[in-house]
Amino acid sequence: MTTYNDIRLSDVIAPHFFDVHRDIKRHEHTEYVLSGGRGSCKSSFVGEQIPLLIKRNPNMHALILRKYGNTLKDSVFNQILWAIDTLGLSSEFRATVSPMQIVYKPTGQTIYFRGLDDPLKVKSVKPRFGYLGILWFEELDQFAGKEEIRSVEQSAKRGGDCFYVFKTFNPPISRSNWANEYALENKPGKLALKTDYRTVPPEWLGEEFLNDAEHLKSVNLRAYEHEYLGIPTGTGADVFENLNVRKITDEERAEFDRIYMGIDWGWYPDPFAWVKMHYDAARRKLYIFDEYRCNKKGNEQTAKYLMEQKGVTAADLLIADSAEPKSVEDYRSYGLSCRGVEKGPGSVEYSMKWLQSLTEIIIDPDSCPETSKEFSEYEYERSKDGEIISGYPDINNHSIDAVRYGMFPMWRKRGR
Predict the structure, then answer these.
(1) Residue tagged active-site, from 48, 138, 139, 227
(2) Quick check: is 139 catalytic?
């Protein structure tokens, strides 16, 4: 393979992508659909290919897209910067955050970054010379189906006769998700490849990553196959296929010693939602065994109810939605230990995937009727064409959000 600044590409490209790299260099395909589980290096590989394509094609610019603009900086933008540094090309590129772009200094070619939540910003991308010859759709499954992708391609692929289109994603759990089905479609000029971490040099991943993978494999094979091997193990639109709605016995409750509580603030029509949980870390099982829901009650009323009727004390940690800091402060003034959850780009997706990866989510329908109903009926979003996409609907999910907030210490710890 080629060497750049004394860096051999075979030393920085994962072995299972060697043939794809050669294919790209010879331009044998126009579209590359790369899917795989955690640690498969697909995003790293594409991140490396884009600066190399810019250098080889002085008339091309690149457009990198994600569904939501606020996820760009901490994902694909940093990924490209990492790739440029890894390839030993840092002195040849200049990066700015506002506007978010990376420029190849010798020619002025530009790598643009856009989110599809603002279509006007995508349409505004007009290079001063040449054309957009390189497109990268990262987290493909989060887009709203093939029609949305096709629309962007039709707008962007103009003014040239040579294009490279990359589409990368972790396969969603549902086999009928549109991105999973799209990866299997035969299409002229398209190369699809699914990979996983097992062919990546172990030292690239680190001992902690490998230990986490083996642990999940031993306690929840189905979740391991989905999360690490990229195998869609679900059959429909249900988000939580690890759900077990049943009575939690008094004997089980007597053993609960790791208690977590979460709050989603609400008034009307959105309800106030409080949940109480126990987490069995060794078996990766989450027990949800108490709830409180109400409308049109102030913070003082709900706090009083939790203390008098649910036995919540100053020693119990309540993790709540941080979007209402005044409510958090109110609870503290009443003598409760309450703090807002830490949020950031991708936190919803990560916490939801953490819940999905558990061996079981056990909910008592007698003591938690609203929570069990929410989890049981919660489904992936569908596009206007009925295709299942990976977005998590922000509707009828108040208890789900309270669970996510309450379990923040666990899923954030795992993320680190």
Answers:
(1) 139
(2) yes
